[in-house]
Each structure stands twice: as structure tokens, then as C-alpha cells.
Write the C-alpha cells for this entry.
Amino acid sequence: MTKKIFITLIFFLTGFVLPAAKISKAFEALKIYDYFKAKALFYSALKKEPVLASYGLAVIYYRTDNPFHNYDSAYKYIQASYSLLKEHPENAKKLKRTAVSEIQIFHLRDSVHLKAWQYYLRNGKKTGIPDLEQFMQNQPFSMYFIDAWYKRDSIVYNQARQQQRSSVMKEFIRSFPESYFVPQASRYLDYYRFTEFSSAGSIPQIEKFIDSFPLSAYRIQAEDKLFELATAQKNTTLMYAYIKRFPQNPHVEPTWKSLYSMEVGNYSSSALNAFLEKYSDFPYRQTIEKELSLANTLLLPITVKGQSGFIDTSGTFVIPAIYDGLEEFSDGLALAERDGKFGYINKAGETVVPFVYDDGEAFKNGRAIVKTGKDFFLIDRSGNSITGSYDQISDFSEGLAVVKLDGLYGAIDKNGKTEIPLEFSRLGDFSEGYSYAQKNSTSGYVDKKGYPVLPFLYEWAESFKFSLARVKYNSKFGLINTRGEFVLQPVYDRIEEQERGVYVVYKNNAYGFADSTGCLLSEVIYHNPSNEKPVALTNGKWLRLITEDDQNLMNKNGRKLAETEEYEEMYLPQYGLIRVSLNEKYGFVNERNKLLIKNTYDDADDFRDSVSIVKKKNEWMILGLSGAITFSVKTGGLERLGKSWFSYTNDKGVFVVCDKKGIAAYTGSPKEDVEVISDRYLVIMENETGSIFDLKQKKYIFQN
């Protein structure tokens, strides 16, 4: 805007009348840009004509074409002129006799506020806290005061957040009690206090946290931490103290049960009586006594004409075969199906939860997920629904279950209370206090209240494990820590799940290895044509290197096991022995590449339970760790059956189950559907009816 136009907008036109000669002369001097004279005259007129004089001084200080330019001074005088008009209506009437209008004063005030704010922002450059505080101090009535206040507080708050210490966050709240960020700061103060008290894993420190901050949002997590520590230490005194101190905590029931199993031991009547005498307040004595009377009794599933039940090891029916289906016992109850409906029975065969559900899952920590129609519910051991209906409910992780309703995900606690509202398009199981979440097609991480802890900027994310998580960013996979820092940069086509501290990474159809610090342990040049799982490529100590021509093992320090020998195949050690193939023959070397079992076999598997199955021509053999053959068979092959047993069909067409020495425990006609339970009981299914054979006693305990 030119000076002429500016003066035309601000000052008087034809017919301009001023109430006093001094103020008139001041505006005349201003009109011809004589700022020194105008400034002196305006100052001398402040007492008699404060509205006009203040306005004139504001014009001088606002303009940039004179040596007096200063936005703070412009603010001071235009604010004075504005206030005199607003607070004293007679000044507005008096102003009507001049060419300076209220609108001009208001307009200049808005312009001064804006220009001053822009000046303090330094044209978009980084503005420091001192600049913002000086602005608020110098211009307390500016229309941009709230913006400065918010910006100042956001800088201080984010600085406090970066330090992740309760003392720093507490000081922020004390220093800025009216800040917009105080609610968020209070939540993080709660969290930092909890982590500081619990990080050392000290029971006294966590108890101190609970005593010091009884209303903390993390009180339950603190109680849960005590539960973990008490049970991990297997200290019955600590566990009982936990029960007495936190009687309402949902961990009390499993703590009682763990305490019971630790104290009772062998479930004898004397042990039970001693336990009940020691813990007279045991709340489940009447209902649990019956269950515990069978706790040490091995129940074997049995099917008779398509109906399921359980027998004990003597072959006596404990639960009759009257159910369409039965699952294993969990929390003392088993999911059962009858007439197309599901319910729960105890070990005495009594119905504890009626058969009214369309589906169900096993009880865990006193809760089970059941389904009616398309709706899922959470029930307790009495069959009481403790939640409303959901489209989906996950298993609990770290005290929370993810739920889905109408396409949105949230989380509930074990009592059905909503801890995270249904607002995410994806939500994962909690691990290490965090869960991945998705909103608006991007993923980030939230805490157990649903508050963001890491930004939503990933295309895919997974739960943290060992404080690390795989994420997809810009179409590539990387590895982040719980602070959101990339430990492995997102440059990989794929990263497999961690295997004992080692990650298998893929790029351009080749694989390599990296550790949990982000250090590459090998080049990414190896090929995995069989797409073997990470457990087949590393055991955390050795890395399996597969090329088109040979295979080798390398430790994490880069030392290769075989420096000169080129093995066609080399597998991970089992029982200290490494299966290798050379010239299409299998043998075993130790972890110093010393050949212990010569390469003479056409096929072999890794050692399991101290034996390997090997093949030479048409003969299958059981090989011991020393290389000695404990048993061989020439027909029908040799297969593992359970942990300690093997099966084959002999030259007479007889199906045989034997031990690792080849001593037969069972013989019979060829079988297709067999399994071993508890490494002892052979279950044989024929025509929807099962028989059970005791391999150690070498006799049937139930035969159809």
C-alpha cells in the first residue's frame, strides 16, 4: 500500500475537524511524514486527547518507514486507544467530530496484533519459549495471546514428554496448571510414576507406588506386576500377602489356585487338610475339593460310536461317552457339545454351565468366550454373562481382551469394563503395555487406555516382543523399538519373527540375519528355496547359510563352521550334533565340525529325544548319539509316534509300536488313525470308536 493511500485510509478527508490545535498539528505532521514532530506532539496531547493521541502514536510505531517502528509500542498505544473507546462511551461520541473513526482504530488494532504475532513468529522460523513468553508479557490482551500460550505450552510439554520422567512432568503441571496439556500430562505423569517404581521389578517399590498413589490409573497394573513377581518367585508367603492386600483384584482367583497347587503338591487327603487348616479363608473349599480330588487323575478321552467321554487309567468311565464332542480341561472345566449346543462340565461330569451356546472356548483365568448366533459374550465360571454382545472377542493379553462391534475395535477388562472405546479399524493384542492400532488406513501404537504412544504412520504393524516390533513403512519392512526409533531401517521385503534374538531378513529374494540391536549378522545374499521357517534357519547361536551350491553354519561373530568342506546340506545342531549331507549321503558333525557319525546314510532326520531315524538303502534304523544303531527294520518304514515311541509295519503286515531300542509294546493289524497320549497311552480309532492301549503295561485299558 502506498503512503498516499495509507494516509487517505487512516486520516481525515475534506471537512476534517480536530478538537484541539496541538492534536491537529500532530496529524498534519504525520500526514507529511514528519515523524519526529508528530511523535512529540502526540505525546504532549496524551493527557487531553488520549484516544486520538494514542491512536496517532500507534500509527507511528506500527509503520516501518520511520526510526520509531516497534510492535510492542504500537500494541501499547493502540490497546490504550481501543480500551478508552470501549470503557468510556463519551469518547466514541467525541470521536464522531473527527475523521478518525472507531472502525479505523479497531482495524489498526487488528493489524498491530497480527503484525506483532508474525514478528514474534519470525516469519515461520523456529520460535523459542523466550520469544513467546516475551510476547505474552508485552501484549497480554492480544487476540493472539491464546495462540502464543498454546504454542509455548506445547513446546514445554513435548520437551517434558521426551524426557519421560515423572519429576519433569510434575514440574510442567506445577508451572503451567492452566495449560491445555495438563490432562494429557497428568496421564503421562501417572504412567511415568508407575514405570519408575516398577522398572526394577522390586516388590517393595511397587507396594510403595500403590501406597503413595492409591488413585492412580495404573494401580491395577501395579497389582498385576506384584502378581507376576509373586508367582514368578513361587513364594507362597508373597502370594498370600497379595491375596489379603488386593482382595478385589481379578488375579486373586488364579493366585489362590496357584497357591493351592504349590502348597498341596500331591493332592492327598492329609495335604488337603493341612492346606485348609493353614488357609482357613480359602474361598473355594467346597467347590474345589471335588475337582481337586481328581486333579492328579489322568483322564483319557474316549470315543464310543461317535460319542465322547473320559476314562481313567484303569479303564473306568469317569465321564460317560454321552457328548458329541469334548475338549481338554482348563480351569477345572471342559467345553462339551450335546445336541448341537455347547456348555461346560467339571471333572465329575457335572454340568456347571448349561448347554445353551452355539460355540465356546476354553476357560482361562475364570473367563470363557461363548457364542450365541453371531454374538460373542464373556462368561464367568457360573455361566453369568459379564459383557454385552460383540461381533468378536479375543483372548486376554495383559489383562485386556480386544473386542469388535460394527466394524470397530476396542478393548475390555476381565470384568467387561470398556478400557478402550470402539474407535479403531484394527487393534492387536497387548504386549509390553502397548497394542498396535489402525485408524484411517494407517497404524500406530496405543497404551491400555487407547492413548497414542507412537504416531500413526505405518502401513502395517505388529505387537511388541522383547521391546521390538516389525512395521511396514513406505512399502518396506523395518524394526522399531518402543520409542518408535528404527532399529532396522525399513528397507526389507520381509522380516521374519524373532528366533532367540535373531531376525531373518529378506531383500530381492535373498535372506540374511540381523540381531535385536539392528546389527546385520550376515550379508543378505542367501537363498531359501524351500521357504523354511526361522526356527530352521537359526537357533540364536548359529545361522544357517544356504546358497545354490552348498550350505554352512556361521555363529553371530561371523565364524563359519565349515571353512573348507562344502556340504550340500547342513542343519542346526540338536543334542550337539549337526546333520550334514555330502555326496548325497548323510552324517553328523559336532559344533567344531568334527565328523562323529560318517556320511553313510541315504536319509536322516535331526536328533530328537537323543535319537535320529536314518535310512540306508531299504533299511530304516534308529541311531543313538554315539552313532550306534539300536534298532532297524527293512519293511514298512519307521515313523515317530509321540515322544518316545516309533511305529512300523513288519514283513508280515503287522503294525508295531516299539521303543527306541526296537522292543515291541503293541502289535496288531495295520492302523491309520492312532495317536499317543501322555507318552504312554496309544489311542486307536476304528469305526468312530476308540480303544486305548497302555504301552508300558502292554495291555488294553479300554477296547471296543
In short: The first strand starts at residue 300 and ends at 304. The first helix runs from residue 3 to 10. The CA atoms of residues 638 and 648 lie 5 Å apart. The radius of gyration is 40 Å.
